């Protein structure tokens, strides 16, 4: 029996494709391009979604922190007259520092001028810039720069405070409701809270 | 064989491209999934933290309400606390809180003790659990400074979290209301009525109530008179209330009457009497001493004087009676003020109750006017004296007998022993309180009408101890201890 061994350069070798033909290459490139575009689009959309989510949750968290801060200051204030509360702002008097105490809320010295201390804090809604701001008032009549507490705030409202007549006959606010709506990336959340100065509690 | 070997090489690159693409997508979507998971779990964690923070705040507030109740329920000695040092004050508070709290579930097995100059409830390293299902809890630290108690309450969120909030308030001494003033007639001893005796409320029948705190007699209250318009209460759980032919609580029906008879009631706090608030307006020198004229303008009667006021005696302001003394009022007596005895055991003119040596006897008609209604244009009525309302007779170490009409007296009577006979009758704008464990007897046509103000008025010269009340203006949110 004679066995015929294929020789290099023979017919069998010529039939084996050494590379893609031009049409094959173009088709595969087209398919690959389409796939890459699809992947890029999906990646971009997903990244945007993550970013929007992140922006929304950061804004919502800032709104929560601002809400907690306002409620904390209202609870601890030594004086809150109904006239200090408008639909978009509240001004709370700062409690004095008690020696030896561990207070979290008290009239602190100014960062710019340690010779003066806080007298009040004003929380307000800046509708044009959709943000909640904080400004401090000092004993010498000056005020601090306006600080931004939270952004992407599309609605902010202090409700009409509940009032009672204090022992000295002056009407005081005993409960202030607050509503904050934060919107970002097409999503929104509304936060509600209420607080009253504990100094007006009767036992 | 060679052709089989070459075939895989020809198809290999196409399968590889698909695999790469699949892996690319896998990595891409896995990354996205991780991103979403991270964002979602972060927000869930923030929400949990917010909730735990609110629960911790609620726990701290709950703890503050708890200790407010306990500090308000305790009774500290009626003596002025102003002289106490911080440690003595804290000791007094711990002593008072102990019986209230020790053994309760709130203490978690710990006793009320002082450690490091503070009382920690339940203990410095333990918590009182508010809600076992959630694990919210609080702990209280009390220390004294000046005459104030500084109370700090830590509240902690659910079990497994370290989120805490703390609130602090200062508490100040406050006089306690005396529940005994809700009774028309109350005595440490027994009470016996007979004849046509009437004990009634002026406009509210329930004011004509009776209490005996006697624990030795089997029948602390025996009513054979005509009427007791209010309820009858005795402290002795094994005692009985004897009623014969009288109306009690508006009924003579024995079945209906049972709901007006109370056996084994909690013993109320009898007042501590300190008459120095009145005697301060009496000149303790010979100038203020009673001169025997029948008129007393802020006078004091030395021991063993034994005066007898006959016909038209007038007392303006304070009559300060020192013991021993047997004083009688016969005929018409006008009392525009108060009668008090020495109550300080360390003062001159004090003698413990003695029914035969310390006697006040009113035999005729007494016309009494509350000191609060007197005009300060009369020099006998100091502007500060006329503010001292609510008391008429403060003589817990004297036996008092009344046989005539005493009109309307503008305050409570606190006596050692009381007997009323004959036509003794009148209206008491307060309560009648017998301070000694002796018999109080009402007989003949005695008629006591009670026009009590209850516990809404604190009679001057009487104290029911002190508790501690919060000062709302001192509220502060602080760092947990």
Q: Mind explaining what this structure looks like?
A:
The complex is a heterodimer of chains A (203) and B (481). Chain A has 2 helices and 8 strands. Chain A is an alpha+beta fold and 203 residues long. About 2% of the residues of chain A have low confidence. With 481 residues, chain B is α/β, with parallel strands linked by helices. Chain B has an 18-stranded parallel sheet that branches. The longest helix of chain B is centred in the N-terminal third of the chain and has 72 residues. The N terminus of chain B is likely disordered.
Quickly list its features.
heterodimer, A: 203 residues, alpha+beta, four-stranded antiparallel β-sheet, 2 helices, B: 481 residues, alpha/beta, 18-stranded parallel β-sheet, seven-stranded antiparallel β-sheet, 4 helices, 33 strands, 36% strand, disordered N terminus
Tell me, what's the shape of chain B?
Answer: elongated
Mean pLDDT figure of chain B: 89
Give the helices and strands of chain A as they follow along the chain: HHEEEEEEEE
Count of separate DSSP helical elements of chain A: 2
Distance between the termini of chain A: 117 Å
Specify the helix fraction band of chain B.
10-25%
Specify the overall morphology of chain A. Answer: elongated
Distance between the termini of chain B: 85 Å
Number of strands of chain B: 33
What value does the Rg of chain B take, in angstroms? Answer: 36 Å
Oligomeric state: heterodimer
- Mean residue pLDDT of chain A: 87
**Largest two-chain interface:** A-B, 36 and 33 residues
Strand content of chain B: 35-45%
Content-based structural category of chain A: alpha+beta
Helical fraction of chain A equals: 25-40%
Continuous helix count of chain B: 4
Taking all Cα atoms into account, the compactness measure Rg of chain A is 33 Å
Number of strands of chain A: 8
Beta-sheet strand percentage of chain A? Answer: 25-35%
Largest sheet of chain B: 18 strands, parallel
């Amino acid at each position: 029996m004679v066995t015929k061994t294929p020789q290099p350069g023979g017919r069998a070798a010529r039939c084996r494709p050494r590379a893609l033909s031009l049409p094959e290459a173009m088709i595969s490139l087209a398919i690959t391009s389409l796939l890459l575009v699809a992947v890029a689009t999906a990646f971009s959309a997903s990244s945007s979604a993550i970013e929007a989510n992140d922006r929304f949750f950061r804004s919502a968290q800032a709104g929560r922190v601002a809400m907690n801060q306002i409620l904390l200051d209202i609870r601890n204030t030594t004086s809150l007259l109904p006239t200090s509360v408008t639909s978009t702002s509240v001004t709370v008097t700062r409690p004095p520092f008690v020696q030896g105490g561990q207070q979290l809320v008290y009239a602190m010295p100014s960062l710019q001028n340690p010779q003066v201390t806080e007298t009040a804090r004003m929380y307000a809604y800046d509708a044009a810039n959709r943000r909640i701001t904080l400004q401090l008032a000092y004993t010498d009549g000056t005020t601090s720069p306006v600080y931004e507490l939270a952004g992407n705030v599309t609605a902010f409202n202090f409700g009409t405070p509940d009032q009672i007549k204090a022992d000295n006959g002056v009407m005081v606010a005993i409960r202030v409701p607050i509503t904050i709506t934060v919107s970002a990336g097409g999503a929104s959340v509304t936060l509600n809270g209420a607080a009253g100065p504990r100094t007006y509690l009767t036992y | 064989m060679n052709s089989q070997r070459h075939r895989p090489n020809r198809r290999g690159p196409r399968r590889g491209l698909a695999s790469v693409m699949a892996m690319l997508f896998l990595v891409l979507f896995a990354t996205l999934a991780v991103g979403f998971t991270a964002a979602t779990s972060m927000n869930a964690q923030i929400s949990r933290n917010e909730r735990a923070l609110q629960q911790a705040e609620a726990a701290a507030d709950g703890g503050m309400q708890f200790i407010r109740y306990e500090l308000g329920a305790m009774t500290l000695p009626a003596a002025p606390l102003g002289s106490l040092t911080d440690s003595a004050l804290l000791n007094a508070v711990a002593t008072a809180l102990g019986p209230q709290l020790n053994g309760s579930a709130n203490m978690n097995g710990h006793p009320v003790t002082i450690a490091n100059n503070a009382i920690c409830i339940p203990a410095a390293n333990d918590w009182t659990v508010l809600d076992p299902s959630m694990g919210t809890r609080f702990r209280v630290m009390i220390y004294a400074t000046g005459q104030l108690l500084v109370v700090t309450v830590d509240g902690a969120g659910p079990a497994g979290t370290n989120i805490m909030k703390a609130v602090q308030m200062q508490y100040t001494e406050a006089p306690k209301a005396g529940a005994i003033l809700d009774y028309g007639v109350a005595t440490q001893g027994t009470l016996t009525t007979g004849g046509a005796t009437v004990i009634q409320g002026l406009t509210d029948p329930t004011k004509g109530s009776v209490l005996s705190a006697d624990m030795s007699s089997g029948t602390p209250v025996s009513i054979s008179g005509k009427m007791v318009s209010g309820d009858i209460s005795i402290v002795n759980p094994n005692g009985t209330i004897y009623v014969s032919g009288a109306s009690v609580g508006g009924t003579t029906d024995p079945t209906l009457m049972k709901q007006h008879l109370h056996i084994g009631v909690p013993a109320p706090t009898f007042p501590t009497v300190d008459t120095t608030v009145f005697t301060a307006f009496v000149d303790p020198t010979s100038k203020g001493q009673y001169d025997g004229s029948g008129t007393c303008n802020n006078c004091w009667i030395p021991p063993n004087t034994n005066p007898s006021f006959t016909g038209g005696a007038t007392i303006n302001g304070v009559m300060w009676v020192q013991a021993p003394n047997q004083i009688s009022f016969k005929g018409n007596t006008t009392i525009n003020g108060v009668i008090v005895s020495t109550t300080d055991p360390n003062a001159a003119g004090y003698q413990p109750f003695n029914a035969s040596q310390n006697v006040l006897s009113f035999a005729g008609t007494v016309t009494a006017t509350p000191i609060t209604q007197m005009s300060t244009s009369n020099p006998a009525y100091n502007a500060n004296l006329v503010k001292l309302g609510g008391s008429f007779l403060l003589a817990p170490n004297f036996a008092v007998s009344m046989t005539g009409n005493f009109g309307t007296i503008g305050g409570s009577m606190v006596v050692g022993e009381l007997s009323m006979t004959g036509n003794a009758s009148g209206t008491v704008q307060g309560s009648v309180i017998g301070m000694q464990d002796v018999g109080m007897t009402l007989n003949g046509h005695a008629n006591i009408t009670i026009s009590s103000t209850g516990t809404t008025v604190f009679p001057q010269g009487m104290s029911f101890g002190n508790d501690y009340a919060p000062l709302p203006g001192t509220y502060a949110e602080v760092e947990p201890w």
